[in-house]
Amino acid sequence: LDERALLEVVKGIIGKDCCLDDCAVFSCNGYELVATTDMLHTSTDFPACMTDWQIGWMSAAVTLSDIAAMGARPLMLLLAVGLDRSGRLHDIMKGAEACCISVGTHVAGGDIDNHHELTIVSSGIGYAKKGRIVRRKGSRPGDCIGVTGVPGRAQASLSGYREFDRSLTEPKPRVPEGIALSSAGATSMMDVSDGLSFSLYDMIAANSCGYSIQSSKIPLPHGINPELALPMALYGGGDFELLFTIPAGSLPVQGVAYTIIGEVIPEREVLLDGIPMEKRGYEHTWDR
Amino acid sequence: LDERALLEVVKGIIGKDCCLDDCAVFSCNGYELVATTDMLHTSTDFPACMTDWQIGWMSAAVTLSDIAAMGARPLMLLLAVGLDRSGRLHDIMKGAEACCISVGTHVAGGDIDNHHELTIVSSGIGYAKKGRIVRRKGSRPGDCIGVTGVPGRAQASLSGYREFDRSLTEPKPRVPEGIALSSAGATSMMDVSDGLSFSLYDMIAANSCGYSIQSSKIPLPHGINPELALPMALYGGGDFELLFTIPAGSLPVQGVAYTIIGEVIPEREVLLDGIPMEKRGYEHTWDR
């Protein structure tokens, strides 16, 4: 049973619309608020090379990235920390606070518990003016497909390319990029933390169109043979870049480092160089 | 090192004001929003008698109780579930959703992970009109000290009085009570989940006055020898009642089951029947 199968159980109870986006969305007096929560723990989320400061940074970054993916501005972060050793708390909090400060927000509260295995849950709230939230749903045939930064760098680090270690351990949530893309008219958006392939298949599930991308246009980590680097970008996890769609007429978007990698198509399929793309990526599994 | 000592580490990093209340508070366009997060897991929070449905209910209740303690109305709940077995998810979600519905809100999203030990983090957001948030700080000498319901019932269950089991396993967050007390003019409030004693000492830490209560006034669980029941109310954990202060002139508060158990005093001490009260209660400890 994988994460996406478990999501079906959840949808049956709390409703399907609750599970379509990186954040839950609700209205508050002319603003739209978004909220999201992410659970991380040692065995599956924190490679052994990570310092406690980086673990704190990462825990904040996953949640801030979800807020960024909605085109929202973060309001605050809450951190629930299940500690295996109490001495770790200081550096974890420092790292989380540093990540928050880097995108103009802060840790506003949390909870502390003891735990057999270090477990951190970060929850975040963000806001945007009415109509400025960008969801996964909203892609229109003819829109350009874009991605910020260079996907595949986190996977490069996991594959042993040490020069990309900080991409894996200190990922930058793309908050200003998300806000700028929202302002520019992005029609749909999500983050690519499970890889480009999974993300495009998540997009198709939320829309009634399809996605066609060209491998030659995907920016790849420098200094790695492109034949090795391309699968990292397509199927590797751990990147915090934003995948978005936007009408060609809204380009270019000032102040954002992005690349157009393809086009939204009417047919309901995900194509890589014209042929159906393998649906594969970073995946949590249960009952192993 | 106990939870309160670890809080000092956190205060040094994110600021002292962040740790004074049951929730973080921030303003949004004429409203005040509150947010809180709570981590629970099998070994310390879920007695073996609990069903998965009750575990879900309890996980929602702790967070909704924190929102209630601010006099706020819950907007939504997020649930991050670290599952030891995937089959547990359905009943856990059902229980959490039932608790949310009982106080007029719902589960709006979350995260699922696999975990060695069942671990649930619920995060909630609530709101109130400007000026209607009740904090721990705000008690004034002469105010009455009140408590909702009957404290000590959860501890009675833990002590083997089976007739109180549902007080322990299906605690009711006092959301309507919190809102009514806020409207009536409560000057300070918190929930008593670590026991009356700890809660009064938490109140004194947030205020510049003291608290004097009378044991004869404390409502106690029925059918238990009062000599046994009183310590349950004072030092037992797991109750979700609200402890509050309110000017005598604002009484009675309609539609709320509460008891006045004492008075706010100018001296900075917590008194039980006129003598300093033992500071003791339910406490998580680390590095055992």
Structure description:
The structure is a homodimer of 288-residue chains. Chain A is α+β, with helices and mostly antiparallel strands and 288 residues long. Chain A contains 9 helices and 12 strands. The first copy, chain A, has helices spanning 3-14, 42-45, 52-68, 89-102, 153-158, 165-169, 175-184, 196-206, 226-235, and strands at 24-28, 31-41, 73-83, 107-114, 119-129, 144-148, 188-191, 210-213, 242-246, 258-265, 270-272, 275-276. In chain A, the strands form 2 sheets. The first copy, chain A, has a 7-stranded mixed sheet, sandwiched between helices. A 5-stranded mixed sheet of chain A has the order 1-2-5-3-4. Chain A is globular, with a radius of gyration of 18 Å. In chain A, 56% of the residues are buried. The mean pLDDT of chain A is 92. At the A-B interface, helix 1, strand 1, strand 2, strand 3 and helix 4 of A face helix 1, strand 1, strand 2, strand 3 and helix 4 of B.
Features:
homodimer, 288 residues, alpha+beta, 7-stranded mixed beta sheet, 5-stranded mixed beta sheet, 9 helices, 31% helix, 27% strand, globular
Brief synopsis:
Chain A is α+β, with helices and mostly antiparallel strands and 288 residues long. Chain A has 9 helices and 12 strands.
What does the secondary structure layout of this molecule look like, with pairings?
Two copies of one chain form a homodimer.
Chain A: H1 3-14, E1 24-28, E2 31-41, H2 42-45, H3 52-68, E3 73-83, H4 89-102, E4 107-114, E5 119-129, E6 144-148, H5 153-158, H6 165-169, H7 175-184, E7 188-191, H8 196-206, E8 210-213, H9 226-235, E9 242-246, E10 258-265, E11 270-272, E12 275-276
Parallel strand pairs in A: 3-4, 8-11
Antiparallel strand pairs in A: 1-2, 2-5, 3-5, 6-9, 6-10, 7-9, 8-10, 11-12
